[in-house]
Specification:
mainly alpha; elongated; 3% strand; disordered N terminus; 469 residues; 28 helices; two-stranded antiparallel sheet
Length: 469
């Protein structure tokens, strides 16, 4: 397929280019809905190898013509923009892999990749500089022009994304750089796309420091970019992957700083909160210190927020170092208010569940005088039960024994469960307070025969004859 001085050179050049373009993108074809497929996925039907979206060079399928005629007939060529430049084939002596005069059909979709041999088995032949098949930077540019939007358009289709991922496996820096240059200006669209995100993740896995720096510059130029990506369904996966790749890189500090600027918004977002948790899981506590400070500053607001309390509990279970004690002490200092809040009580339960003796003692001490009241609240009753199962059990039992509202607690829809827990836990630990509690409840035996009180009577009868377990 050599160049000639035929007066019809431009037509031959267009046909040759289309042939090479078809090969360079692995025979990607586009259906009417704009999604890319390969010839295997649609039989022998030939369609344009690129979306006809007004920005790319494409080929109109011929009517009543053979596949070969439809593709290569220069009269059917439509130019849709400057995204792909014609290749300079002068002096190349180029013969596309898989082509011959006897068999002019297109090669099959690439199945293997090898540097120094045939690239994807479909037109890229990387040889030595002196060989006729050697591809210079300019010739590659002819297929994937970084100045256009052809790469990003294909990268956001299922087949196009897979194809570029395969190209990256070659580990040829020229190809890697060309693909990167073709998507960097559209990096947000790429990482938030259903299919493009996979190419983004492959690119960052190569850990090219310059590329990573450029990506971070794009995402952190405005903190809104990394925030928008973090709360996006697909973008959040990309940002979490980026954090994992940057784990030991100084660039991770830039990511943490950018996320800190939108800490509250991320923590109350059902998707964004997982990006924060990825930072806590993947990055060391020293680099996460800015996030720790933001959590402390926003602690009480998050604890009383319907969604924020859930993410705060996840944060508490991950925080490390001295900031952890600082955060737990802040919650302990405000435990009375939080215990009576519909959302805050979940945070208090979570902190008690950590089984930190000093924190439990502080919480149980702060709640003295509130146990009876909390026992008759939906959320508060769970906190009291948590205290009964902890080292702070005696605080609760002493308050019950000195209260004149014990019967009211026993007959309450929530309180009766608290008293059942108190009887079980004191019995299980062989606490001397168990007998005192039973004696006080026996004084109200007749009143306990009705309503929720019957649960207490039944349990007292059972525990009276059961051995200590």
């Amino acid at each position: 397929m050599e160049n000639s001085a035929d007066p019809k050179g431009p037509t031959c050049m267009d046909s040759t280019f289309l042939e090479i373009l078809q090969l360079s993108f692995g025979n990607l074809c586009v259906k009417n809905d704009g999604s890319a497929t390969t010839p295997q996925a649609q039989g022998n039907r030939v369609s344009s190898s690129l979306p006809l979206n007004g920005s790319l060079t494409g080929v109109f399928p011929g009517s009543g013509l053979s596949n070969r005629e439809s593709i290569l007939d220069s009269s059917k060529i439509g130019n849709f923009g400057p995204s792909f430049n014609l290749m300079n084939l002068n002096g190349a002596g180029y013969q596309p892999y898989g082509f011959s005069n006897e068999n002019p059909g297109f090669p099959s979709y690439p199945e293997a990749i090898s540097t120094g041999g045939n690239l994807l088995g479909s037109g890229f032949n990387i040889g030595t500089e002196n060989s006729s098949g050697f591809w210079t930077q300019q010739r590659i540019n002819g297929i994937v022009s970084p100045g256009g939007n052809g790469i990003i358009t294909l990268a956001m289709t299922e087949s196009g994304s897979k194809y570029f991922q395969d190209l990256l496996l070659v580990k040829d820096p020229r190809i890697k750089n060309l693909i990167f240059e073709g998507v960097i200006e559209y990096i947000f669209q790429l990482l938030a796309n259903k299919y493009g995100r996979y190419l983004f993740q492959k690119l960052i896995e190569l850990e090219d420091e310059n590329h990573l720096r450029m990506i971070m510059k794009k995402l952190t130029f405005s903190c809104g970019d990394i925030f928008d990506a973090s709360i996006d369904r697909y973008g959040s996966y990309s940002i979490k992957k980026l954090i994992k790749v940057l784990e030991k890189s100084p660039l991770v500090t830039e990511a943490v700083k950018a996320l800190c600027k939108k800490f509250w918004e991320l923590m109350v977002n059902p998707t964004g909160q997982y990006v924060i948790m990825e930072c806590l899981d993947a990055v060391d506590s020293q680099k996460n210190d800015l996030l720790y400070i933001e959590a402390i500053n926003n602690c009480l607001q998050l604890a009383t927020h319907e969604r924020g309390c859930v993410s705060l509990n996840s944060f508490i279970s991950r925080i490390k170092g001295p900031r952890r004690d600082q955060l737990l002490n802040l919650i302990s200092d405000n435990v009375v208010c939080l215990s009576q809040d519909p959302s805050g009580n979940f945070v208090v339960q979570s902190v008690i569940g950590l089984q930190n003796p000093s924190i439990i003692d502080k919480i149980c001490s702060k709640l003295k005088g509130y146990y009876v009241k909390l026992s008759m609240q939906k959320g508060g009753s769970h906190i009291v039960e948590k205290c009964l199962r902890s080292s702070g059990m005696d605080y609760v039992i002493h308050e019950f024994l000195h209260s004149n509202q014990l019967l009211q607690v026993a007959k309450d829809r929530y309180g009766n469960y608290v008293l059942q827990t108190a009887l079980r836990e004191t019995k299980k630990t062989s606490s001397p307070l168990h007998e005192s509690l039973v004696v006080k409840l026996q004084q109200h035996r007749n009143s306990l025969r009705h309503g929720y009180g019957r649960n207490i009577l039944t349990l007292m009868t059972a525990t009276a004859y059961s051995p200590v377990q």
